[in-house]
Amino acid sequence: MTVLHPAVTASPAVPEARGDVSHAVRTRLLGGGPRQLPGESAIARCAPYGDDLQLALHLCYELHYQGFAQVPDTLEWDPDLLRVRALLERRLESALRHDCRHLPDVEEGLAALLVEPVDGTGASHFLMSQGELWHLREYAALRSVTQLHEADPHLWVVPRLRGRAKAAMVAIEYDEYGCGRAERMHARLYADLMADLGLDSSYGRYVDAAGAETLAASNLMSLFALHRRSRGALVGHFAVLETTSPPAASRLAAAMRRVGAGPAAERYYDEHVEADAVHEQVVRREVVGGLLDDEPALAPDVAFGIAATCLLEDRMGGAVVDAWSRGESALRTPSHGEVPLPVAGVDR
Question: Which among 99, 241, 312, 323 counts the fewest CB atoms within 10 Å?
Fold first, then answer.
C-alpha cells in the first residue's frame, strides 16, 4: 500500500458540480460571469440537505479557508457570490429550524449528550464492533472534509465572545492547534492518521467522494461561524463536538488497533479521548456558562446549535452505516478520476 505524504495546506481543485446550482457557482469560480449565478427561485427548488445545495455552499465557504487552485482570492468577498451564499444559507437554516423546532433547554440538551446509548448504532459503534480496514479508510476519507481544517471554523467566534467564554474558548483552541507545535496540531495529526491508512491527506482531496450528509455536517460549522448573530449556535455546536468526542474517539481508537491501522491512526483518537474529556468540562462551565451569564437571551440559539448539530451528525452517521450494512461503499464517487478506495470484500 502506497503512503502519500500529507499536504494539508495546499489549495484543492474545484470539486465537480452536482446540479444546476452548484454548476453555476462552480462556473463563477472558474471565470464565468455573475449573470450565470442562480436566483432565489432556483435555490428555493433545491433540497435543503441535498447534494446540489450542499456542494454549492461548500464552494462558497471554502473561499474563506484555503480556497481553490486557480480561483482568485478576490472572489472571497465577491458581492454576487455572497448574495448566492445568503440565499443558500437561508434555505438550509429554514429547514434546520423547522426540523429542530421542538427544542429542549440548554441544560437538558447538554445532559442528553452525556448519555451513552446501550445499543449504539452510529458509525463509531459499527467500526468498533465489526469495522474492517476498508470501512475505516472510508470513514477517515469522509471525515477529512472537516478534520483537515479542524478547529478553524470555531476561531471565528472568539472575537464575538467576552470574558470567561472567550478565555476558555481560546484555551481549548490552543490545545487544538498543538499548543504552539505544528506537528501536534490536530489537523496535522489527522493527516498522519490518513497516511497510516494509505490515504491521500491533501486538503480537500475527498470532497468529491463525500455525500450530501457529510457536506452538510461540515457546512454547519461555517453557517454558524461566519455570522455574529449565530455565535450562540456555534457555541452549542462546539459543545456537542467536545462532549461526544471522548466516547466516540475511544471506540475509534479500539477499531484502529483491532485492524492494525498504525500508530498515527491510533494516536489521533487517543489524543481526543484524553484532551476532549477535559475540554468537555471547560466547554460546559466556562464557554456555555460564561456566554449565557453574559448574554442569557442567547440560550435558545445555543439549544438550536446543539439540536442542529445532532441532527446532521446523525444523518451522516446513518447514511454511512446504511451503506456499509448493505455491503456497499459509503463513498459517493472516486475523487478526480483516481482509483477509488477499497469497496466491500476488496483490500487494495
Answer: 99
Distance CA 27, CA 45 (A): 20
On whether the CB atoms of residues 157 and 231 are closer than 8 A, the answer is yes
Distances in Å between the Cα of 337 and the Cα atoms of 47, 209, 223, 334 are 27, 11, 30, 6
Whether the CA torsion 185, 228, 107, 320 is positive or negative: it is negative
What is d(CA 291, CA 303) in angstroms, rounded to the nearest whole number?
13
Q: Check if the beta carbon of residue 243 is closer than 8 Å to that of residue 302.
A: no
Contact at 8 Å (CB) between 12 and 65?
A: no
pTM of this structure:
0.92
DSSP 274-290: HHHHHHHHHIIIIIIHH
| pLDDT (tens digit per residue) in 150-198 | 999 999 999 999 999 999 999 999 999 999 999 999 999 999 999 999 9
Residues in the chain: 348
Residue 41: all three cell numbers together: 427561485
